[in-house]
Amino acid sequence: MSAKYKLVLRKDFSKDAPQNAKKYFAQLVNNGTVGFEELCRDIAEETAQTSADVKSCIDRLAKHIAKHVKEGRLVQAGELGSFLLAGGSGGADTIEKFDASTMMKIPKIRYIPGKELQNIRDEVTFTRVKDKTETTPGGNVDDDDRPVIE
Fold this sequence. Notes:
Layout: E1 2-11, E2 22-28, H1 36-46, H2 51-70, E3 75-76, E4 81-86, H3 100-103, E5 108-113, H4 115-123, E6 125-128
Parallel strand pairs: 1-6
Antiparallel strand pairs: 1-2, 3-4, 4-5
């Protein structure tokens, strides 16, 4: 599996960088979107469920994950992964000075991918996508990337 990236010129925020220094950084390129309908159809093709059954189950899954996470539970959703509430607060000098209504930060929902999803990180390779204006070492702008029909 190959993840595409492009190089973008951005300000260098490293500790010892001179003012206005810039460096090229990799930015992953989105390779399209898989809609909910397509995902449900794909799952339905591999199971004995209809697409509507799959949609219903996923809808209920999200509702029940939210319910249990809100109650402070860690929710293990099989190979999908785990969900939990994570949060913190500002500090107080004494217990009496701590005011949860003003000092608590907005909690986040933390997601920890399951093993199958974590394994993607070890399997991914990277392919650079050149910018249309980027020149080749010979000085020419890259040719059109569309296939040539002979």
